[in-house]
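Quick bug: Hemoglobin-like protein HbO output formatted oddly.
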Amino acid sequence: MNYTIIAHNANYMPPVQKPNLTFLPQIGEQGMRDLLSRFYACLDQSAIRNIFPAKNSAEMEEAAQTSADFFIQICGGPAYFNQRHGVPKMRQRHMPFSITAEGRLHWLVCFEEALKPLEASVKEEDLQSFWNYINTFSVMMINTQG
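Here's what came back:
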């Protein structure tokens, strides 16, 4: 598995390709929810914890499940995010929060940590497609220099 992080270039927005549709069936909806729970637990202890409005671990877990709704939908599952929260518009939703290139790196390190337990049970090309998606998606979320 290659967890290389693509460089951020403020003058270039890389094209984002959704993960392989075979990723979600391998982990299932609960597996996606577990993945996002691990990810948010890492964020809760990370250097970028301060950018999250959640006041405690329970609220971070709530955010994890909202995020799981998004990723289930992106990976070809039911449109939970649209049904529960409206159209994603993720860049617009994150605009109130200061997301720097350095913050992006912390975010990706937490995602890598959360994905590692899946390496033994998910086809490498499908796991790589998910990583590639979040890697390029994360570039779009940067909204603050510094």
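Actually, after a second look the formatting is fine. Helices lie at 23-44, 57-74, 80-85, 90-94, 101-115, 124-141. Closing.
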